[in-house]
Amino acid sequence: MSTAGKPYFIILSCGLLFAYIATRCVMVDITHDEAYSFRVMKHFWYAEALCTANTHWLNSLAMKAAIISGWERNWQLRWFSMLSALLFLFAGGRWIMSIKSVHLKIFAFVLLLLNPYLTDYMGLARGYASGIMLETAALLLLFNSLNQMQDKMGRLGLLCAALSCIANYSFVYFFAGYAAVYFWQAYFKNGKPGWRKGWFYVDILISFGVLIFIFRALVFITRCSNDIVGAGTGSITEVARAFTGSLIYRYADMPTYCLVAVTIVLGAGVLIICATGLGTRAKDGNSEYFCSSRILLITLLLIIGSHILPGAVYPYARSALFLFPLLCMNTVYFAARMKINKYLLTLASLMLAINFVSAFNLSHTLDYKAQEDTKEAFDRIDAMQIKSVFLGRGTYGVYTNYYEQTGKLKYSFHGLYADSLLCGQATAYALLTEANAFRIPPCYRSDTLYRSRSGNLTLVRLQKID
């Protein structure tokens, strides 16, 4: 076995990756979604917490525990995501070490763990990190139950899959697919009626209890704020665009024909992978590939069915992260089943590794690039003793929902929302964002006072034109 295939190399690599994630937890400024969750949990407004899809319950409860303990800095609020990242790396590492081929091990490592978009969310106080960790643990436990013929591992996996829904509601699709395969494997595969087993009713209670809870929560959110719409899209081509953008860590506009072609290629690839997995039943009805492909297929069918019948949006970008471990594992199993050439695997691994290295940074995330350097800019404004400054949507959200709610981190200047910038003041100050600068009224001329390190934020002084 080469050095790259040995357990200590995988453990060391996972350790370095965790160090990178932990460093990002400290260095990356708080995002407006994290800030909003912080404000809701700080005051614990029950109605607002229940009314928004921004509340990811396991993360929100962990954030509340941090607030009660007096931990209000960005990295302290992200403690649960850091723990989830560590457990995800452990579960992912265990799965990778179970693979026999060295080249396949390396490919599995870079595909599952060296994804810059996933790394972003492992370092943010959101529910995606814990959801991904619980999903990966559920799959690993199911695979172990197949190999060791132990139902209790599968049952523990069912519990992990159920908790992933509580971590983030979008994981309900995965949970439903997992539960369907689990019940078949545990209670009906051998043709015997499963309801004669006592644990059958416990598992049914867990499954239906979670599904009813999630359904009730989604209905309440839809009636209260319709916040669910913002977490998805009605276009399948937009799903493909977001998927490729998150994979290469940059969103880019594509011509319609390119977008359609990418959608067809991705869809065909997933169908081929699923069909190949389902075909393994002839050889081994308990194969990991067979089970994981069934979970993936059922999950995808539920997503499509939910869109066609109730009119639910397709999950995309971060709301589709629950598909990532399933797609990765099925891709690796497909490569093993088809005996993909080791040189092709090495080339694919190299390209994925280069993509990860090129996205390496300690300052921002892909989805929240507009909030990069926010603290640096606020520190500069405070040092300049400016009394009030107009802020764009993202930076204003960070200011009013996070810094204004803290004790030690509160600034002396007053942040104003950009929409309130009119022509009534002779002199005003505004912090502009490179990504989505708000419109300055034509009655003002601007002078640049400061530009942030990355160039993302610019502080300008506005003088009224006589």
Would you mind describing this structure in some detail?
By secondary structure, this protein is of the alpha/beta class. The protein folds into 2 domains: 356 residues, no CATH class; 96 residues. 61% of the residues lie in helices and 8% in strands. It is built from 19 helices and 7 strands. The strands form 2 sheets. It has a 5-stranded mixed sheet with strand order 4-3-5-7-6. A hairpin with a 5-residue loop joins β6 and β7. The radius of gyration is 24 Å and the shape is globular.
Summary, kept brief:
The chain is α/β, with parallel strands linked by helices.
Count of distinct strands: 7
Task: For the record, give the distance between the C-alpha atoms at the N and C termini, rounded to a whole number.
Answer: 78 Å
* Order of the strands making up the biggest sheet: 4-3-5-7-6
Output the radius of gyration: 24 Å
Shape: globular
Task: Catalogue the unreliable spans.
Answer: none
Query: What level of helicity do the residues show?
Result: 55-70%
Work out the strand percent: 5-15%
Number of domains: 2
